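User: I've been trying to design a sequence by hand for this structure and keep getting stuck. Would you show me what you'd pick, starting by listing the structure so we're on the same page?

Assistant: Good idea, let's start from the same input. This is the structure you sent:
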């Protein structure tokens, strides 16, 4: 069979080179993507005191319930980000938190509805484009049988993507808490943060990763 003209030989050569270059650029991509997959934040029990009905005041500030202002305990700003396992912010998602008051009581009939009426006890925020959230609340307090913690739930539309708990780094109650110990070292590192004192209260920042 006669050789193709020079122009066709150059085209074939260029095409073969393009195929090699294209293959080299496409095939490594899945491996690269796998390397960047983030580990999901561990889930934990919802506990018995998730609100039966959401309070009328359920914004980011748990230290104000309507016009009432809650003053016991220590002010804390709890913030962070929510992303999927590829690192993409969960824009449009909702973060909820709920916790006991300084005396260790929840706004819940199962706890006798003994929580201070000035303490909102529950808050929710909608995530914007950067996936960040922030709450003004109480530095978590202990109650019988549990180390200080904040309950957290992440939703997207009608889906519940994660229910877990945030912990205070260095709290002596952690080592005695069965749920905290059960997390193991990696889970403890993901859900436990220092509460750093500042001019307007303590600050703690958490990175939350969900399967979305």
């Amino acid at each position: 069979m006669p050789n193709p003209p020079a122009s066709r030989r150059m085209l074939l050569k260029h095409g073969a080179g393009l195929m090699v270059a294209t293959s080299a650029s496409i095939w490594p991509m899945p491996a690269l993507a796998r390397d960047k997959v983030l580990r999901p934040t561990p889930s934990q029990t919802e506990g018995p005191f998730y609100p039966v009905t959401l309070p009328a005041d359920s914004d980011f500030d748990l230290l104000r319930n309507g016009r009432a202002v809650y003053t016991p305990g220590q002010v804390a700003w709890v913030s962070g980000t929510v992303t999927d396992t590829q690192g993409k912010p969960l824009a449009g998602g909702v973060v909820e938190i709920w916790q006991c008051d300084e005396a260790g009581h929840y706004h819940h009939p199962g706890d006798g509805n003994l929580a201070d009426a000035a303490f909102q006890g529950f808050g929710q925020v909608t995530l914007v484009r950067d996936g960040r959230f922030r709450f003004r609340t109480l530095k978590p307090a202990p109650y019988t049988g549990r180390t200080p913690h904040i309950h957290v739930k992440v939703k997207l539309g009608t889906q519940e993507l994660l229910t877990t708990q945030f912990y205070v780094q260095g709290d002596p109650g952690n080592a005695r808490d069965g749920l905290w110990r059960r997390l193991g070292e990696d889970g403890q590192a993901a859900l436990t943060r220092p509460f750093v004192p500042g001019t307007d209260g303590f600050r703690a920042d958490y990175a939350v990763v969900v399967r979305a």
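That's my pick for every position. To get oriented when you compare it with your attempt: The chain has four helices and eleven strands. Confidence is low (pLDDT under 50) at residues 6-33.
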